[in-house]
Amino acid sequence: QTSMKNMERELVCPVCKEMYKQPLALPCTHNVCHVCASEVLLQHGHLCCDPTSEPTSPAATPSTRSPRLGRRGVPKPDRLDRLLKSGFGTYPGRKRGAVHPQTVSFPCPACQRDVDLGERGLGSLFRNLTLERVVERYRQTINISAAIMCQFCKPPQLEATKGCTECKSSFCNECFKLYHPWGTQKAQHEPTPPTLTFRPKGLMCPEHKEEVTHYCKTCQRLVCQLCRVRRTHTSHKITPVLSAYQALREKLTKSLAYILSSQDTVQTQIAELEETVKHTEV
User: Which parts of the sequence belong to the B box-type domain (predicted)?
Assistant: First the structure.
């Protein structure tokens, strides 16, 4: 158990604190998720490629790259040259508004050093396919060894197939139907994958089906992690949901306090205006 926990620590991204997804190998030998790397560069003012696409790095060879990427046309040299000269290039790591290509510095979250990625930014990094396969195998091992059992079956218990966030329990198919009878309020509960740790159901991003974690002040809307790294929110003011909630709550509390304290004065002014209206009519 201890050795498995130690191994799991080695497979966790230092940015998102979750298991690596499409890890990129940095020059300092540390690794970081592709989406996380894009997000870090975006926070430092660099315009990155779409983080949801596969990295087109030297490691993403034709055999490992998706067919969708394999069919993508390469821009003509003259068009690419015009884009770079105009300052609107969007290749990975290019700093927004820069007229000439420049080297991209990436702050490694593991060793706290600024790593030089060159002019191509993330495009110069290799995708760590070995680490990716290790993570996938570890996930499969955990799923096999940690089967979740139904919490309502009489012995012998069956393996759970559904979870319910509202009930905070895991069920087999039959028990789920039994405890969520048709025509009752519980029938509206949405089944989720079985788990032993139920978190409160948060608001979901309608576009990416991910839980919203931040608030864009510019757009005045909640955003998820994938929304944050899209070009739509480049240079926008984005804060964590909790910070935005506390700030808005404080602002509303002050506004309500001011309104309540001024209530008597306003009522007096209304009464005086009504008297003036009557007097004017007479």
Answer: 200-241
